[in-house]
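Exercise 7.
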Amino acid sequence: MNRSPYQILQKPIVTEKSLAVKAGGRSLCFKVDPNATKTEIKEAVQIIFKVKVESVHTSTFAGKMRRRAKRLVTARNGRRLTSSSGRERKFRSTRTSPKQA
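Solution. The predicted structure, written as tokens, is:
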């Protein structure tokens, strides 16, 4: 993997649907780099959360001005995947500061 795992996993997605999936304890949704492959996403999650990933489901949504993508990652049986894992995870911010006039 050429890029940092934190460059691939940009931030967790917090919506009603993603929280319902997370309630099962084995899956999390992430906003990721649109150019990331499933293999890169799997390796990044395994490095950051120290779990074995069972599957990665991807979907891409057309945004208003740019392309957006989200990924659902599921850990193997017997392993819980939590967003904190004992310490705070830092994800790269995708927000840009407003330009001053």
